[in-house]
Amino acid sequence: MVPLAHILALSAILFGLGAAGFLVRRNIITIFMCIELMLNAVNLAFIGFARFLGSLDGQVFAFFVIVVAAAEAAVGLAIIIAVYRNRGSLSIEDFDSMKL
Amino acid sequence: MAALFYILAAVAILAALCVVLQRTPVYSALALIVVLCSLAVVYLLLGAEFLAVVQVIIYAGAIMVLFVLVIMLLNARQETPLDRSRLARWLGAPLLAVFLGEVCFAVWQRYPVKATAAAVIDGGPRAIGALLFRSYVLPFEVTSILILVAVLGAVVLAKKQP
Amino acid sequence: MGMSFSTVLSLLAIIAKVAVVLVALLTAVAYAVWLERKVVAHIQSRWGPYRVGPHGLLQPVADGLKILFKEDFAPSQVDHLIFWLAPFIAFALSLVPISVIPFGASVTISGHTISFQITDLNVGLLFVFAVTSLGVYGVALAGWSSNSKYPLLGGLRSSAQMISYELSLGLGVVGVVMLAGSLSLREIVERQVGLWNIFLQPVGFLVYFMAAIAETNRIPFDLPEGESELVGGFHTEYSGFKFAMFFMAEYANIVTVSCLATLLFFGGWLGPVFGPPLLRALLPVAWFCLKVLGFLFLYIWIRGTLPRFRYDQLMGFGWKFLLPVGLLNVLVTSLLVAWRST
Question: What does pTM read for this prediction?
Answer without folding.
Answer: 0.91
